[in-house]
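INFO batch 0412 | record 1 of 1 | parsing
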Amino acid sequence: MEMRGYGRSGMRLSALGFGCGAVGGLMVRGEPRDQERAVARAIEAGVNYFDTAVQYGDGESEKNLGRVLQSLKPAGAVVGTKVRLPPADVGRIGDAITRSLDGSLARLRLERVDIFHLHNSITESGGGPALSVRQVLDEVVPAFERLRQAGKIRFLGLTAVGETAALHQVIGSGKFDSAQVVYNMLNPSAAAALPANYPAQDYGRLFNRTRAAGTGVIGIRVLAGGALSGSATRHPIASPPPAPIGSALSYDADVARARRLQPLVDEGFAASLTEAATRFALAQPAIGTILVGIATPEQFEEALTAVEKGPLPAAALDRLSALRQAFAGEVR
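INFO prediction complete | emitting tokens
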């Protein structure tokens, strides 16, 4: 397994991480024996980053990951979890963050997590489920720092969703060691300029900010919630189609556009759209590790096989760019 440096943290993470989210569902709704088999195989293959959150199955993902890691006792496992503050807790952000982390640590059976990510969207003015730039920098960051000083977390992180300008401000502050960034074949704008009138959120080359700040990057939505399989069929334990992040305004529109990238497969650049999407994310040097949702141990094997083939070659990236040009001007 390729190991990559992770920003200024000093850590080296496996290019493929183990996502424990609800979209794939294995670590939320899977059978315990399948959960342990998949994690054991990941460890055997060299995976060292495991990503979960209290929101994944209302704590079920954390409980199951904690149980499996306690059983397997892997050396050098790096664990990340998240906090999402509901609007009712905005008046007591510090206490709510501490309470959430303590619950996560209990479920994970750990005294400390390596990366603690803020899971709220971030906007300039906040409101509803979003936090404002000032709330993040003036309240969330100090609360995270207190938890770091208490030895409960190692690194501060955020999930980079919300308004582009707000994300640039927060990451540009240099306060966060880790950022989970949307990056996939339908929306590469964290790395490159989009065509004019392209039907996706423009993240404004956010990777320029992460590099300048020394912030490590976890590539998320690599498969666009499953849409980049090109199929609307979902595994029985997977979540229903998730709301898109950063791409079309509907999951069906993402699936339809994904199917228009099929020439990558037909022309021999990859064995499947899923493989192409996985290897596309790997081709981005700003990314330290990627997460791919999985429902079964077999789906993990597919992701591992794709990663072992390495990044898409330059010719494939050029072909993909040409195919995406056709999306410009379409309704998002």
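INFO post-check: The two ends are 37 Å apart (CA to CA).
INFO record closed
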